[in-house]
Amino acid sequence: MTTTDPDVSPIPYSAAALEFRDEIRDWLKRNAPDELRGVEVPRDPSPELQAHLDRWADTLTEAGLMCVSWPKEYGGRGLTGVEVALMNEEFARAGVPRLTRGMGEGLVGPAVIAHATEEQKRRVLPPIISGEHVYCQGFSEPGAGSDLAGLRTRGEIDGTDLVINGQKTWTSGYYKANWMFCLVRTDPDAPKHKGISYVLLPLEVDGRPNGVEFRPIRRMTGKALFGESFLTDARTPLDNVIGGLNQGWKVAMTTLGNERGGSATTQHVAFERQFWRLVDLARERGLAGDVRVREQLAWAWSRIQVIKATGFGLVADLAAGGSGTGLGNGSTAKIRWSEFQRRLMEIAMDLAGPDALVTGPGYELDEWQEDFLATRSHTIWGGTAEVQRNIIGERVLGLPKEPAPARKKEKEAVR
Asked: Which of 207, 243, 329, 382 has the fewest other C-beta atoms within 10 Å?
């Protein structure tokens, strides 16, 4: 049995769930592409790998394995949280990527299903499933990151259109997108969390740019996987406002709830693979017998098992009819995996020794150097570790709110 085999899970799955698991397992045996087995999809795949991924995405779409948690009437399979977890486990077990439609599937779709009109659902959702519409996110702004409600991008009504002007930042995946889902202030006189609208914005209209300019933000790794967005008289029909004009905050909360949920049931699979590569590095360096190194590796393995147990706890909650969000699951999972990855990469740098410092022209970053630099941001994006601890303390444990000066200091530190 593999460590990801649901057969050894402590969760008492129903007969229907196990039948579904067997269906997915059999399908993967027949259809999983050999060229993608064991592949961990990078954010910037090579053209050759991207071609394989595109073919696999088409296969999954034809089999009805995209947007699987969406209701059947909107093109999904209506899978329960338990079934989605089992499906994730089976893809991990087969060693092939469980591709999705990215932000369109995980963030836009749930918000549209929960808050849009029937006409909007019928119009917006099918192009996400097919892959025709690819979304990037326009939420954060230079002065509105953790304090998202402080956004200043304006949306003004002009006939049947909304005209948008402002700036967004940390726009992930902008280079692949042809649509943006964004928050704009449509009533500047309303209280802070009011007067905000959730808008779907095409990046081109009739083949011409729609007033959106992207400027890449280069990370420490040298790659630019997100950017700044400058919106100048960008236009979208009022029909693309989801949840009603000035009612966007509640829609945004649906999106953020999905963003912070993560893949808690399968995260440990990638972490275990990375751990064993790290063990190999220790052996290559002749450090496998060093007591300090062994202690660090033991620490890493124990944390992976905690993350794995947390995932099983999430599935147990879902199997018992819960929402999977009890006891601050989203926040605790985010803290655990993000802080774990940062520390794991620090251990990797220690093991690499002086070689970890070699970079520059002619010396491309290796796997450990790139992951070390990338993980510096993991405790910031998707809700900082400080914000997540406040959520747990105040909303889960019922502790009093932090004094106002501490809040102000924290916001200034994030900026």
From this structure: 207
